[in-house]
Design a protein that fits this description.
Elements: H1 3-7, H2 14-36, H3 42-65, H4 67-72, H5 82-109, H6 116-139, H7 169-184, H8 191-215, H9 219-225
Helix pairs in contact: 2-3, 2-5, 3-6, 5-8, 6-7, 7-8
Length: 235
């Protein structure tokens, strides 16, 4: 084992993670171009290219500043709340439906053509959302896929970075992410499943916050210091 390998967090499998990174654009492409009915869909190819570049950049950033979070998010863990499993069973299909509906709309049937600037706005929203999520992941090693109290990892309250502004910045980024995908692919119809995914994240925010206040030491005091869950001055 090399000195560099010894520095990797326990559970880090670089080969598996790189493989997943490489498979992501392939999965996205199949989910988009098959329903589009054509490979000649410029917006689709641009989206795949942007996703590949951005995800690669995020991986490299997190691998440098907080590799533990990469391991934490690479698999599901025991102790996930039952209600969270139900919410995720709606959220993930809704996010997949954003790509599918956009492909059917802009790629195949052209139900509601939009101006090019809508796509530009979409990419701005998408990148902002990814940036917020990445910022949250960079400072929070407990940022996992599912909701649970990570007692085996010494779960503590994180109040730095975006967590000093709102209590659930990852969901802010997630909502922007969903909306940004729909718009960047030029589909207003895709905003419907994006809206469903966003509603799930809002519900999840409330339930997760209640769980943390009841079960995580120090979170109740943190909620007094940082009053808002998602939007400063609103909620």
């Amino acid at each position: 084992m090399t000195a560099h390998d010894a520095e990797q967090p326990q559970g880090m499998n670089r080969r598996r993670l790189v493989l997943r990174l490489a498979c992501l654009p392939v999965f996205i492409a199949l989910l988009m171009f098959l329903p589009a009915g054509t490979w000649a869909w410029p917006k689709g190819w641009l989206f795949v290219l942007v996703v590949l570049v951005v995800v690669s950049a995020v991986f490299l950033i997190l691998h440098r500043v907080n590799p533990e979070v990469i391991v934490a998010r690479s698999s599901l863990h025991e102790g996930t709340k039952g209600w969270d499993k139900i919410l995720l069973s709606v959220y993930f299909p809704a996010m997949a439906a954003v790509l599918l509906v956009a492909a059917l709309d802009d790629g195949r049937f052209h139900w509601f053509p939009v101006w090019w600037w809508v796509c530009v706005v979409g990419y701005a929203v998408l990148l902002l959302g990814i940036g917020i999520v990445t910022w949250a992941e960079a400072v929070n090693k407990f940022f996992e896929v599912t909701v649970r109290i990570q007692t085996e990892r010494g779960h503590t309250v994180i109040d730095t970075g975006p967590y000093a502004i709102v209590r659930h910045p990852g969901y802010v980024g997630g909502i922007l992410h969903a909306i940004g995908i729909a718009l960047s692919l030029g589909s207003l119809w895709a905003l419907i499943p994006a809206g469903v995914a966003s509603v799930v994240l809002i519900v999840r925010t409330g339930w997760e916050d209640q769980t943390l206040q009841e079960e995580l030491n120090g979170y109740e005091e943190y909620s007094v210091r940082v009053r808002y869950k998602l939007i400063p001055g609103v909620w």
